Structures are given as structure tokens and as C-alpha cells.
UniProtKB/TrEMBL annotation:
Gene: rplR
CDD domains: Ribosomal_L18_L5e
Recorded family membership: Belongs to the universal ribosomal protein uL18 family.
First and last residue of the signal peptide: none
Keyword Ribonucleoprotein: yes
Organism placement in taxonomy: Bacteria, Pseudomonadati, Campylobacterota, Epsilonproteobacteria, Campylobacterales
Entry GO CC: cytosolic large ribosomal subunit
Protein name: Large ribosomal subunit protein uL18
Length: 120
């Protein structure tokens, strides 16, 4: 297979996983927002979304903190994100892994959120 076909297959499989995960967790509310994560090769970002009103309640990213997209950075971003969630009065969230497999950076981010007192 060519590189373009491999990339197309990879992206289409992620889109399928994304729809499946989004369907199972449901919509985020003001009390239990949906926390979605995005990772690129350089950066990692997360936001808490109230899908009912279409509002982002809190957001954090590694670019603003001067970090990369590795596990250590994911832990630091999660710690800062957890502080923002607590400041907004949010203790329980729905974790949307956004179609990414639950390992590596995504798992480190989720574990760090739990370690900082946020229930997933």
C-alpha cells in the first residue's frame, strides 16, 4: 500500500472509533461535561464541553505550557486541567478519548486526571 492509502485507512478507522466512543458516552452537561482530548505529533490539548449549551467550560494544552506531546507532558497538562475543572466546580466528567486508542499519552492523561481528584 502507498503512504496515502495507509494514512486514509488510519484516519477512517479513527473516525469509526470516534463515532463509537461518542455514541456510548453520550452528551456532556453542565454537571458532567464531556472531556475530549486531542493529540498531534507536537502538542496535546483537552477541553471540557457542555454539549447541551455548546459551551467549552475549561481548556488546557501543552502548547500554552511550553510542553510536548509525551506522557510526562500529559501528566502536567492533566494536573493543570484538573485545577481548572475544580475552579469551575466540576468533579465528575465523561472522558472522550476522541477515537485514539487508550494507551500511552491518552492513558497517562486519564490516570493523571484521576490522581488529581477528577472522577471519570
Amino acid at each position: 500500500m502507498s503512504r496515502a492509502k495507509d494514512l486514509l485507512k488510519k484516519n477512517s478507522l479513527r473516525a469509526i472509533r470516534k463515532r463509537r466512543v461518542r455514541g456510548s458516552i453520550g452528551r456532556g452537561t453542565a454537571e458532567t461535561p464531556r472531556v475530549t482530548i486531542f493529540k498531534s505529533n507536537k502538542y496535546l490539548s483537552a477541553q471540557a464541553i457542555n454539549d447541551i449549551d455548546g459551551v467549552t467550560l475549561a481548556a488546557s494544552g501543552s502548547k500554552a505550557l511550553g510542553l510536548g506531546a509525551n506522557k510526562e507532558s500529559a501528566v502536567k497538562v492533566a494536573a493543570e486541567f484538573a485545577e481548572k475543572l475544580k475552579a469551575a466546580g466540576i468533579e465528575v466528567v465523561k472522558f472522550d478519548r476522541n477515537g485514539y486508542l487508550y494507551h500511552g499519552v491518552v492513558a497517562a492523561f486519564a490516570d493523571a486526571l484521576r490522581d488529581n481528584g477528577i472522577k471519570l
